[in-house]
Design brief:
Layout: H1 4-20, E1 41-45, E2 50-54, E3 59-64, E4 67-78, E5 81-86, E6 91-97, E7 100-103, E8 106-110
Length: 112
């Protein structure tokens, strides 16, 4: 049987190690890197009615029919898949295939 004082010392050492570990260690970084993700930038439908800008800070702004910032929120990228979390509370998804963003029912192309 382990004496109580050794058990308490081991628990204290474990807690101290956890408290001094760098925040987020072992987890993906949520801070933007100095090189923006290749998907960052403006994506536009063929008719130009919908413009979606993926910002380097993980936010997006979508304009529809001339209405700036019709939708705003955050997004994450996993491989070629995007998950959108709109500020109004709804979610959406998208996938990039052959340089084209398929976002729910929309097809968007990179604006050059």
């Amino acid at each position: 049987m382990i004496p109580k004082n050794l058990l308490a010392l081991g628990l204290l050492a474990t807690l101290t190690a956890c408290a001094t570990e760098a925040p987020g260690a072992g987890q993906p970084s949520t801070t933007p890197s100095s090189t923006p993700h290749p998907y960052v930038g403006m994506w536009v439908t063929a008719d130009g009615r919908i413009r979606q800008e993926l910002l380097p800070n993980g936010r997006y702004e979508e304009a529809r029919d001339g209405r700036l910032r019709a939708y705003t929120g955050r997004y994450t990228v996993t491989g070629t898949h995007l998950d959108y979390f709109d500020d109004l509370g709804f979610t959406a998804t998208g996938d990039v295939r052959d340089g084209v963003l398929y976002h729910e029912h929309l097809v968007l192309y990179r604006e050059r």
